[in-house]
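sry for the spam today, last one i promise. C-alpha coordinates for design, 152 residues
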Protein backbone atom coordinates (compact mmCIF):
# COMPACT_ATOMS: atom_id res chain seq x y z
CA UNK A 1 0.00 0.00 0.00
CA UNK A 2 1.09 3.54 -0.68
CA UNK A 3 -0.58 6.66 0.63
CA UNK A 4 -0.78 9.87 -1.36
CA UNK A 5 -2.91 13.00 -0.93
CA UNK A 6 -5.41 11.35 -3.33
CA UNK A 7 -5.88 8.34 -1.05
CA UNK A 8 -4.37 4.97 -0.21
CA UNK A 9 -3.31 2.90 -3.20
CA UNK A 10 -3.94 -0.81 -2.87
CA UNK A 11 -3.06 -3.98 -4.73
CA UNK A 12 -4.64 -7.41 -4.53
CA UNK A 13 -3.64 -10.60 -6.29
CA UNK A 14 -6.33 -13.28 -6.30
CA UNK A 15 -5.86 -16.82 -7.63
CA UNK A 16 -9.05 -18.28 -9.11
CA UNK A 17 -9.34 -22.01 -9.83
CA UNK A 18 -12.02 -22.87 -12.38
CA UNK A 19 -13.50 -26.34 -12.53
CA UNK A 20 -16.07 -28.03 -14.74
CA UNK A 21 -18.74 -30.56 -13.87
CA UNK A 22 -18.76 -33.59 -16.08
CA UNK A 23 -21.41 -36.26 -16.35
CA UNK A 24 -20.21 -37.74 -13.08
CA UNK A 25 -20.95 -34.40 -11.35
CA UNK A 26 -17.49 -34.47 -9.81
CA UNK A 27 -15.60 -31.18 -10.26
CA UNK A 28 -12.61 -31.45 -12.57
CA UNK A 29 -9.94 -28.74 -12.59
CA UNK A 30 -9.94 -26.79 -15.85
CA UNK A 31 -7.49 -23.94 -15.35
CA UNK A 32 -6.26 -21.41 -12.82
CA UNK A 33 -6.08 -17.69 -13.47
CA UNK A 34 -4.72 -14.82 -11.40
CA UNK A 35 -6.68 -11.59 -11.06
CA UNK A 36 -4.47 -8.63 -10.14
CA UNK A 37 -6.33 -5.52 -8.97
CA UNK A 38 -5.05 -2.05 -8.18
CA UNK A 39 -6.97 1.00 -7.09
CA UNK A 40 -7.24 3.88 -4.66
CA UNK A 41 -9.22 3.98 -1.41
CA UNK A 42 -10.37 7.59 -0.88
CA UNK A 43 -12.32 9.58 1.71
CA UNK A 44 -11.63 6.91 4.33
CA UNK A 45 -13.40 7.19 7.67
CA UNK A 46 -13.46 4.82 10.63
CA UNK A 47 -16.11 5.51 13.27
CA UNK A 48 -16.30 3.27 16.31
CA UNK A 49 -19.42 2.08 18.11
CA UNK A 50 -19.78 3.52 21.63
CA UNK A 51 -19.16 0.09 23.17
CA UNK A 52 -16.14 -0.59 20.91
CA UNK A 53 -17.61 -3.80 19.53
CA UNK A 54 -17.32 -2.70 15.91
CA UNK A 55 -16.26 0.19 13.75
CA UNK A 56 -17.91 1.53 10.64
CA UNK A 57 -15.78 2.04 7.52
CA UNK A 58 -16.82 4.55 4.88
CA UNK A 59 -15.02 5.76 1.77
CA UNK A 60 -14.80 5.00 -1.92
CA UNK A 61 -12.73 2.80 -4.20
CA UNK A 62 -11.61 4.55 -7.38
CA UNK A 63 -9.17 4.13 -10.26
CA UNK A 64 -9.54 0.34 -10.28
CA UNK A 65 -7.57 -1.52 -12.90
CA UNK A 66 -7.25 -5.25 -13.36
CA UNK A 67 -5.18 -7.78 -15.21
CA UNK A 68 -6.02 -11.44 -15.72
CA UNK A 69 -3.32 -13.99 -16.49
CA UNK A 70 -3.40 -17.74 -17.00
CA UNK A 71 -1.35 -19.46 -14.30
CA UNK A 72 -1.99 -23.10 -15.13
CA UNK A 73 -4.11 -25.16 -17.48
CA UNK A 74 -5.19 -28.70 -16.69
CA UNK A 75 -6.73 -29.22 -20.15
CA UNK A 76 -4.10 -28.03 -22.62
CA UNK A 77 -3.65 -24.59 -24.20
CA UNK A 78 -6.32 -22.04 -23.23
CA UNK A 79 -6.91 -18.56 -24.65
CA UNK A 80 -8.34 -16.55 -21.78
CA UNK A 81 -8.58 -13.18 -23.59
CA UNK A 82 -12.40 -13.16 -23.86
CA UNK A 83 -12.80 -14.72 -20.43
CA UNK A 84 -10.51 -12.01 -19.01
CA UNK A 85 -12.81 -9.32 -20.42
CA UNK A 86 -15.81 -10.92 -18.71
CA UNK A 87 -13.94 -11.12 -15.38
CA UNK A 88 -12.79 -7.51 -15.68
CA UNK A 89 -16.29 -6.25 -16.46
CA UNK A 90 -17.77 -8.21 -13.55
CA UNK A 91 -15.07 -6.99 -11.13
CA UNK A 92 -14.73 -3.39 -12.22
CA UNK A 93 -18.24 -2.56 -13.37
CA UNK A 94 -20.19 -4.77 -10.99
CA UNK A 95 -18.39 -5.53 -7.77
CA UNK A 96 -16.66 -2.16 -7.37
CA UNK A 97 -20.02 -0.43 -7.74
CA UNK A 98 -21.52 -2.76 -5.10
CA UNK A 99 -18.53 -2.18 -2.79
CA UNK A 100 -18.80 1.60 -3.18
CA UNK A 101 -22.52 1.51 -2.36
CA UNK A 102 -21.72 -0.45 0.81
CA UNK A 103 -18.87 1.91 1.70
CA UNK A 104 -21.11 4.92 1.14
CA UNK A 105 -23.65 3.52 3.60
CA UNK A 106 -20.87 2.29 5.90
CA UNK A 107 -19.53 -1.23 6.34
CA UNK A 108 -19.42 -2.43 9.94
CA UNK A 109 -16.35 -4.42 10.91
CA UNK A 110 -17.11 -6.58 13.95
CA UNK A 111 -13.93 -6.84 15.99
CA UNK A 112 -14.82 -10.01 17.90
CA UNK A 113 -14.92 -11.89 14.61
CA UNK A 114 -11.14 -11.52 14.42
CA UNK A 115 -10.13 -11.40 18.11
CA UNK A 116 -12.76 -12.48 20.65
CA UNK A 117 -12.67 -10.14 23.66
CA UNK A 118 -11.09 -7.20 21.81
CA UNK A 119 -12.90 -3.89 21.57
CA UNK A 120 -11.73 -0.83 19.64
CA UNK A 121 -12.55 2.66 20.89
CA UNK A 122 -12.16 5.94 18.99
CA UNK A 123 -10.52 4.57 15.82
CA UNK A 124 -9.03 7.25 13.58
CA UNK A 125 -7.25 7.14 10.23
CA UNK A 126 -4.78 9.69 8.97
CA UNK A 127 -3.56 9.70 5.39
CA UNK A 128 -0.03 11.07 5.46
CA UNK A 129 2.54 11.54 2.73
CA UNK A 130 3.71 8.00 2.06
CA UNK A 131 1.88 6.13 4.81
CA UNK A 132 -1.45 5.56 6.53
CA UNK A 133 -1.68 5.94 10.29
CA UNK A 134 -4.46 4.12 12.14
CA UNK A 135 -4.91 5.17 15.77
CA UNK A 136 -7.26 3.54 18.30
CA UNK A 137 -7.67 2.64 21.95
CA UNK A 138 -7.72 -1.14 22.28
CA UNK A 139 -9.20 -3.01 25.21
CA UNK A 140 -8.79 -6.77 25.55
CA UNK A 141 -10.77 -8.80 28.06
CA UNK A 142 -10.26 -12.55 27.64
CA UNK A 143 -13.61 -14.19 26.91
CA UNK A 144 -15.01 -16.34 29.66
CA UNK A 145 -14.80 -19.99 28.81
CA UNK A 146 -17.47 -22.36 29.90
CA UNK A 147 -16.07 -24.95 32.25
CA UNK A 148 -17.65 -28.35 32.02
CA UNK A 149 -18.21 -30.00 35.36
CA UNK A 150 -16.95 -33.50 35.64
CA UNK A 151 -19.57 -36.09 36.53
CA UNK A 152 -17.08 -38.34 38.25
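last one done:
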Amino acid sequence: MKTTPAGTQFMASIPILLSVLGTSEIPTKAFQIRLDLTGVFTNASFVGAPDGSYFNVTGAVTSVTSNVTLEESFMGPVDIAKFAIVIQVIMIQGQVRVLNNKLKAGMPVVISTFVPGLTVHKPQIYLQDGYTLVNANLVYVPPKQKVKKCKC
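The chain has one domain: 2-20+29-139. ok im logging off now
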